[in-house]
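Narrative of activities, Objective 1.

The group set out to show that a structural description can be obtained from nothing but a protein's sequence at a throughput compatible with the screening campaign. Below is one input-output pair from the validation batch, recorded exactly as produced.
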Amino acid sequence: MEKLKLDDFTKYKFLSGIKASPNGKKTGFVLHEIDVDENKYLSNIHIYDEDNKSELKLTSLDEERSFIWKDDNTIIFPAMRSKKDKERKEKKEDFTSYYEINLSGGEATKSFEVPLNVNSIEFIDEDNLLLTATFQYNKPNLKELSGEDKEKAIKQMEEDKDYEVLDEIPFWGNGMGFINKKRNRLYLYNFKDEKLTPITDEFTDINSVKLNKDKTKLVMISNSYTDKASRSSDISICNIRENTLEKLNHEETFNYSYADFLGDKIIFAGKDMKSYGLNENPHFFLMELNGENCHRISSDDFDYGLWNSVGSDCRYGGNTSIKVDEDYLYFTTTEGSNSYINRIDKDGHIEKLTESKGSIDGFDVKDGKIKFIGLRGLRLQELYALENKTETQLTSLNEWVMTDKKLSQPEHLSFENDNLTIDGWIMKPVDFEEGKTYPAILNIHGGPKTVYGDIFYHEMQYWANEGYVVFFCNPRGSDGKGNEFSDIRGKYGTIDYDDIMKFTDLVLEKCTFIDRERVGVTGGSYGGFMTNWIIGHTNRFKAAASQRSISNWISKFGTTDIGYYFVEDQNAATPWSDVEKLWFHSPMKYADKVVTPTLFIHSEEDYRCWLPEGIQMFTSLKYHGVDSRLCMFKGENHELSRSGKPKHRIKRLEEITNWFDKYLK
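Output recorded for this entry:
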């Protein structure tokens, strides 16, 4: 077996977009690969056939990132394949072309076109389509213009691209750029008449839409605003035939996260945020179609988030994590350091369907039969079938990593702090020898409401292959252990810092093969905040790499996409109510105490933890004579380490590893 190399992640295969065919006998998914030379991701639709237990590559133009099933043998997907369509896009025309391809063979053919930039579609019948699309207030529709008027509009749009007008918050979004007055709008589209009918107004942003079984009604979650988007949302029902839209909110302030039809009722998930704020775990509720008899069906002891928060840098693309099938709502939870598939019925009975440890990255269910994309043990993503709580691996797309590469198995190490169990892990170097001492790296996850587990994490496996001990834990603030454990509002840098430092003490006590004089620390997002905080409160680490970090809660409040509500919620203060509290929790306040050589990694278009957060801390350290370096990646956002351009991901990991090599080796 050979060592894992830094750029081996460019050979991994990533799975997303899993969808079962209408009869459940075939499963479609998108397979993503990396082309380093072209510096991009190649995405194609693949089909797993249940009958002959085979996997087929359906498309091959490397740009098919999403699809839906038209019938059991036909796939519909958006694409830009013709030269004419590409020229129209270059002229700023809004439209989306859809192609269909038969599983029996043959080329994909253009099926239809919608005169909008579409985000999602669902067929109502042969003539009508339900869709969501990006709408921008006051933007001219070139499809409705011709001749001189069209040319004027195009010219004006060219002139306008050099400046932005901002009159609401958020005005930009991570990975989306400027979003001022942009909404995800809901429409009906009739193929025969080519008629487009908006269901929602120009200021309503759609979060999710679900049709009932006979496709005559839909339930949706949305947020309508003109100046400031709020943390609460709305739930509404639409009668498609009668063209009526009725709001069903059961509380004045409530955050609805999911809604669908369950039999003749509506099931939804959400939270009032009164006890634990933004990060409060949701509950399940049931109501009549008119909004009456609304009641909670999940019990008090159900205290988990409805998503997979187990961290890894080996994913690409999105997946479904919650879906209604027959008499159940199937959903994902993160419990401890693993994620699971569960289901709930109308009476609130919850059943856990997966028992194996690891990560459920996405699933689909049809007639009770489940297929899922998962990370199991140190295996990278594969497709699995689940039946009677028994898992069967269906693909071996990444098996070579297990068979050909040296890997380090994370070893669990937990301890008690303030009567709470803190879970952590250590990874020894792959060629570990008794009697030798090794440098070590403490890695801190983002969130803070996420978790580490013992699944595959490329950067940590690479460091273990480079002779480092790697250790990491889930301090207070992490997911998987209920609301009270994850609630660190107003306490950033206090109890969480204490957990991490005591875990470090335990690791150094237990692992006498670690050289205490050669220990580094790194982390991204919340982990970047904590890295900045740590270097201002201890000099025990000999090098640090702070990634997409927070250094100043006051500036973050007014500059980032979530700052105006996230900072107030997580720090229990605003710049006007208690500026001293925000400054107390800001790592920059303690920058004059730092002696640790620190590398800063930031992306130019990271509007979640904006570039100035890194610049401020970097400048502070330089001002005080601390060896520091800032690497800024152009064209990247908060997701650099997970879905950034391949060459940038390579460069990022090179920079971090070289920094630690310089000071720890």
